[in-house]
Amino acid sequence: MIVEKIVSDTFQTNTYIINKKIVIDPASDFTKLIKEPVDILLTHGHFDHILGLKFLKLEYVYIHPNDCELLKDYKKNLSSLINKKIEFDIECKDITKFFEVIHTPGHTMGSCAIKIENYLFTGDTLFTDSIGRTDFPGSSEKHMFESLKILKDYLKNIPEDTIIAPGHGPMTSVEKILINNPYLRSI
């Protein structure tokens, strides 16, 4: 599996392209890199993780059902905070029915981590040394704490060299994140 990580200029959002066939959290214009139709996997529905949807030829869009409405409503996906109206009237497929997913509500109610081979794409739930914000509309500190407990247990049961690929910031491994992330250490 070939995974390319691209960081958007504006919001420093990580996009991952797998074998030029799957795009996780498209934050920018990738038309120079990808000309063919692709599947889109979304860790959640905030605007900075969906900006690139308009530039890609979409095969299918997979997202947790709790976040599908975020794609269609600029207030819910928070693009209104940057005075933009980013909305997509597209069919969403339930990501939990097609991929190995850990539902991690907190940052959004449909946030999830996606496991593909030796990678865990954690979106804005878990960063290398932090976690996603819980002060946005639709976020929940209580749900985030519960999700982190579930995620920590999950991490303890997968190979230590599994790569953690967050929505922002550097990638790391399971072994390192369990040691270095203060939120996981405190649980």
Describe this structure in words.
This protein has 187 residues and is of the alpha/beta class. It has a single domain, classed as Metallo-beta-lactamase, Chain A. It contains four helices and eleven strands. The strands form two sheets. Strands 1-2-3-4-5-6 form a six-stranded mixed sheet, with no helix packed on it. Strands 7-8-9-10-11 form a five-stranded mixed sheet. The longest helix has 15 residues. The chain starts with a strand and ends with a helix. 39% of the residues are buried. InterPro entries: MBL_Glyoxalase_II, Metallo-B-lactamas, RibonucZ/Hydroxyglut_hydro.
Task: Record keyword descriptors for this entry.
187 residues, alpha/beta, Metallo-beta-lactamase, Chain A, 6-stranded mixed sheet, 5-stranded mixed sheet, 4 helices, 17% helix, 25% strand, globular, metal-binding, Metallo-beta-lactamase domain-containing protein, hydrolase activity, hydrolase, RibonucZ/Hydroxyglut_hydro
